[in-house]
Structures are given as C-alpha cells and as structure tokens.
Design goal:
Oligomer: single chain
CATH superfamily of the largest domain: Lipid/polyisoprenoid-binding, YceI-like
Strand order of the largest sheet: 1-4-5-6-7-8-9-10
Mean pLDDT: 87
Number of domains: 2
Distance between the termini: 50 Å
Largest sheet: 8 strands, antiparallel, barrel
Order of helices and strands: HEEEEEHEEEEE
Length: 204
C-alpha cells in the first residue's frame, strides 16, 4: 500500500476539518440559544390617565427570567417573573395604596408572570427582526392573553460581559379590569393601562 506524502495529506485534512466546522455551525444554528435576563436592565413601567388631567406613572423592577432565541429559524420564547413588591411611583404613600387588596394585593399575589406563546418576525429582506410577542400575563391570580409590540429588538456582543446580549423595548395597553383591578373606574379613572417593557438578557 502506497503512503500519502505530507503535501497530499494537508489538503485532505483541511477538507475534513472544514466539513467538520460547517457541520458544527449547522448544529449550533439549528438550536435556539438561552439568554438569562439581567434584572438591572429589565423593568415594566405603567402609565394610567388620572381623571383626564395628568398621568400616573410607576414601574416594577428586578425582573428575572430567560429568553430562548434563534433569529435564523425565527423562533423565540420569553418568560418573565415580576416582583410586585418592587413597585415604585416616586410616592411611598401611593406605592402602599397600590400594594393593597384594592389594586395589586401584593401580600396575596407577590409575583406576576409573563409567558410568551408566539413570536412574530418581519421581512428578513428589510432587515426587521422581532415585531411582536404574544403571550399570557398572570396578575392578581388571573391569566389573560396580551400582545407586546416590539419598538426595537437587537443583539450585540457585550465587551464587559464577554458574551452576546439580546434585548429590546416592548409596549402594550391592557384592560386592568380583566385582572380584577377595577377600583375607581366608576369615578372616572380609565381601565386602560399602558405598559412599556424593557429587557436585556445575556447568552448562557
């Protein structure tokens, strides 16, 4: 049996190595990556009209959860855990009122949850990515569907974390009475609440 020379082995080795790398890349790209949400870059802020005069605003912070995201396959999943006791309106007395059974009943329902059911993507040719995320919001012991519109969503390499990070801003409007929060609706405070959600998550 004749032996191959070194010059003959190198192209064969390179070809095999190239095929292996392509195979590995294909396997990696066919699975969604997992991203853990950074609580310092995640919040849910709300705004509600106050008797057609001003707007009451506040937010929930220290959000946790994770994202599963595969832009090539155009698939995604996100789960959020929202600590209701983190509410902050800039007014401690108002915070206590909102934590009471008349509103969020924080003692009985300390956590709220969002679990996505479907991600919507734009036309890849136009460069758009995530456009909307449908899911279920669990609040005050009630679960109802909501749709979050993505005002922006992007991924980048974070040089401080030394890993990819994905995140964006989302917005929606909910009817608070669906979740049993109907205080003062008869007096003129609207049932519609605007929500702005910000999330960033680092790849694991």
């Amino acid at each position: 049996m004749s032996q191959l020379s070194f010059s003959q082995l190198v192209p064969s080795y390179r070809k095999s190595l190239g095929a292996l790398l392509l195979s590995m890349c294909a396997m990696m790209s066919s699975h969604a990556a997992t991203y853990h949400i950074d609580p310092t870059h995640a919040n849910v802020r709300f705004a509600i009209d106050h008797f057609n005069t001003s707007t009451n605003t506040g937010g929930f912070y220290n959000i946790t959860g994770q994202i599963e995201y595969d832009p090539k396959a155009q698939t995604g999943d996100v789960s959020l855990v929202i600590p209701m006791n983190s509410i902050n309106t800039g007014n401690k007395a108002f915070d206590l009122t909102l934590k009471s059974p008349d509103f969020f009943d924080v003692e009985q329902f300390p956590l709220a949850y969002f679990q996505s059911t479907k991600w919507h993507f734009g036309d890849a040719k136009s460069g758009s990515q995530v456009t909307k995320v449908d899911g279920n919001l669990t609040l005050n012991g009630e679960t109802h569907p909501v749709s979050l519109t993505a005002t922006k969503f992007n991924c980048y390499f974070n040089i401080m974390l030394k890993k990819p990070v994905c995140g964006g801003d989302f917005t929606t409007t909910i009817d608070r009475t669906q979740w049993g929060i109907s205080k003062y609706t008869l007096l003129g405070i609207t049932k519609d609440v605007s929500l702005d959600i910000q999330i960033e998550a680092a790849k694991q």
